[in-house]
Design goal:
about 220 residues, alpha/beta, TIM Barrel, eight-stranded parallel beta barrel, 8 strands
Length: about 220
């Protein structure tokens, strides 16, 4: 069964405590923290997402996954490794050299945190392949990173299918996560292609019943 990660990008700041509690009770599998630096993408959520992470760590037991959309990956990794998060995923496009990527992967794993790589819609999935033996997960972006509420890019399905087949053929035990445009129509498509986790943001917060929404997506 597919797992649900709720992105907090659309969370209303004034109601965050009650909403976080409601999402946990409803059965979200993860809280998804979208960290943006205002450089890699236009929006800057650095302070807000740090506050959300601190709050979640104090009031819930739901695992936290961090998605870094930043230029200085190392600085942000160091800021989150001691915050009780389950996983940290960073963009392959943020790094200029293979050695840099490998060092970041090793550093995250040394802190007993799962590590993932992600890529923009226009980056070929094959760019991820050399790192698969060292990763816990790959996050496939099915929208352009930086904003919620975008429409799903259909070409992402083929990326997921290719990644799933390549990992299976080579014996790589990775989790495939998909982020962007997830709803009751797109989730079945990505799950059929091989996705294990879907990141749901706007669709979740526009619903009147989180529990029913999560159950519908998992079904």
């Amino acid at each position: 069964m597919v797992e649900i990660a709720t992105s907090l990008l659309s969370l209303e700041k004034e109601e965050n405590l009650q909403t976080l509690y409601n999402l946990e009770v409803a059965g979200t599998d993860y809280f998804h923290i979208d960290v943006m630096d205002g450089k890699f993408v236009k929006k800057d959520t650095t302070d807000l997402m740090r506050r959300y992470t601190e709050t979640i760590e104090q009031i819930t037991t739901t695992p936290i996954e961090v998605h870094l959309m930043v230029e200085d990956v190392e600085a942000y990794v160091k800021a989150y490794v001691d915050m009780g998060v389950k996983s940290i995923t960073f963009h392959i496009e943020s790094c200029k050299r293979e050695k840099e990527i490998r060092n970041l992967i090793a550093y995250i794993k040394e802190h007993n945190i799962q590590v993932g790589l992600t890529l923009k819609p226009n980056t070929n999935i094959e760019e991820i392949y050399p790192y698969l033996p060292y990763l816990h997960r790959v996050l496939v972006m099915s929208v352009e990173p930086g904003a919620g509420g975008q429409e799903f890019i259909e070409g992402s399905i083929e990326k997921i299918r290719k990644l799933n087949a390549f990992a299976y053929e080579n014996g790589y035990d990775i989790t495939i996560e998909v982020d962007g445009g997830m709803n009751e129509k797109t989730v079945p498509k990505v799950v059929e292609a091989g996705a294990d986790i879907v990141v749901v943001g706007s669709y979740m917060f526009q619903s009147n019943n989180y529990k029913e929404t999560i159950a519908k997506l998992k079904a």
